[in-house]
Specification:
heterodimer, A: 329 residues, mainly alpha, two-stranded antiparallel ribbon, 1% strand, B: 292 residues, MetI-like fold
Chain lengths: 329, 292
Amino acid sequence: MKLPIPPILIYALRRLLQAVPVIILIMVGTFLLLKLAPGDTVDALVGDMGGADAAFIERLRVEYGLDQPVWVQLWRYMAKLATFDFGWSFVYEQPVSTVLMDRLGTTLLLMATSLSIAFTVGIALGAIAARRVYSATDNLISTLGLVFYATPSFFLSLMMIYLFSVKLGWLPVGGIQTIAAFYKGWDHVVDVALHLIMPTAALSLIYLSFYLRLMRASVLEVGDLDYVRTARAKGAGEMRLMIHHIMRNALLPVVTLLGLQFSTVLGGSVVVETIFTLPGLGQLAYQSVVQRDMNTLMGIIFLCSIIVVVVNFLTDLLYARLDSRIELA
Amino acid sequence: MTNLDAELSPPEPPRLLVFWRRYKRNRAALFGLAIFAIVVLMALTAGIVDPGDPLRRAGAPLTPPFVDMATPLGTDQLGRDVMSGIFYGARISLLIGVVATLVAIAIGVVIGALSGYFGGWVDDVLMRITEAFQTIPNFVLLLTLVAILGSKIEWITLAIGIVSWTAPARMVRAEFMSLRSREFVDAARNLGVSNTSIIFREILPNALPPIVVYASVIMALSILLESALAFLALGDPNYASWGNMIGQGRAVLRSAPYCAVIPGIAIVLTVLSFSLLGEGLNDALNPRQKKQ
C-alpha cells in the first residue's frame, strides 16, 4: 500500500524545484557582478592593516583562493553555499551565517507587523472607499492613498521622528531596545514594541496605499458583477454582501500584489532600518555595501531571495484558499 | 463601441483633441499636469530664475525661510541656498526619472517581446531571468550595483533602469502572446516580413498603450529610488539632489526642520503629479475601462 501524499506537499516540492534554478541564477549573477568590483577581500584587509609587502599579499591571495580563475572561485563558492556555508565576514570577524541569524529576527518582525497592518488596513479602507464611491469619505481615503504612495519612506520617517521624538518626546528615535535598561520579560516586550512603532508605521503607511488603491478598484469591479446583484436582490444586507460575496473575489488581485511586492517591501526596509538604526538585514545590507563586506552582502542576497520565495509560496496557498477554482499542483 | 463611434462621427476631430477632451474630464489629472508643468519649468529655468549655485555658500548658515530675500527658502547648515537646490534638484530628478524609465522600458520591451513572440525555450530562459530579478529585493540590488559601478550620475541612472525593467517586460510579454497569433501578424509573416520587422513594426505599436501608462509609474518609482540613494549619501555628490538635501537636513532636524521638509514636499508633489498623470492617461487611452 502506498501512502497517499497530500497534494499540498507535492505542490510545495514542485515549487521548491522551480525556485532552485532562479536562486542559482541570482547567486551566480551576483558573484560574477561582485567580481567586477574594483579590489578584492585581500585589498580591503591589507588596506586595514595599513599595507604589507608583495609576498605576504600573494600568500594571502593563495590562502583565500583568490589566485584561482574566477570559474574555480565561483564553483567553490557555490559548493559551499549548497551546504549553507556563507563564508567568513572580515568586518564582523564572525561567520556570515552567525551575523545573518542575529539580524534575521528583527527584519522578520518588522516585515510581519508592517505587512499585516498594511494589508488589513489597506483592504478595509479600500473596501470602504469603494462602497461609498465618489463620496467625501472616498475622496479623503483616495487622496490620502495617493499622498502616501508619493511619499518616500525616509521622508515619512524623518517627519515622524520630528513629531513624535523631537517635539512630543513620546517615542525613541532609534534602535531596537533601550540599551542601558536591561529590561526583562514583559518590560522588554513593551520596550521593543515602543521602538518598533515608528518604523512599522513608516513602512505600513506607504505600502498600505498600494493595497488600498488596488482593493478599491477591485471592489468596484466585482461589485458590478451579476452574482452580486443577485445576492442584493435576494435581500442580503450591505455588510453580508461585502464580507461574504464581494470581499473574497475582490481580494484575489490584492493577494497577487502582496506576493509580487514582497521583495520591494524587503528592499524598502533597507532605508527604514538604516534611519531607525534597527539591527536588521536591511541595515546590514547598507553597511556591507559601504564597508565592501562582499561575503555578507552575498549572504543577505541569498537569504532575502529565500524569504521572497517562501512568501510567494505562502501567498499562492492563500490564493488557492480564496479561489477554490484554482487547484494546487 | 457603438457610442464611441457615435462620439467620433461624422466630422472626426483630430486625435489629439479627442485625447485632450478625455484627459481633462479627470480634474485630478489636470492638477497633476499643472504640478508636472511647474516641475518641468523649474528644471528648465534652474540657473536662470534662481542664479545661485546650489552647492555654494549663498548666505549665513541656517537662515530660516522668508527672512532674507537673497535666499527666499532659507539656507542649510553650510549656507547653501535651499531654493536653488530645489530648482537644480528638479532637473536631476526629472533627468534620472526620464532616462531610467527609457532604459527600463527598452530592456523590458526587448526581453518581453522576444519571450512573448518566440515562446518555447527562449521564453523559459528569459522568464527565469526575469524571476531572478523580481526575487532579489530591488533596493538591495541597486545598492550592490552602485557599490560596483560607483556613484556617478550615469551609472546611478543605468542601475535604476536595470532594477525596474521586470514589470514592463511581463506586460509586453503578455501583450505579445495575445497578439502574435492575430491575423495581421500571420499576414505579415506570409508576406515574408522578417521577425525583427514583425516584432518592432507590426506588434509593438499595438502593445504600447499600456506600457506608456505604466511608464509614469516607473518614472515615479525611479525618482523615489534616486532620492533614497541620495538620502543614504550614495548619490552623485556633484549634483544637488532632493534626497541628498533631506539626508543632510536630517543632521539639523531639531533646529531647522525646513531643510528636510522643503525638498521632501518637492518629492511628494513630483511623484504625486506622475501618479495623477498616469491615471489621466489611462482614462484617456482606455476610455471604456472607466464607468462613472
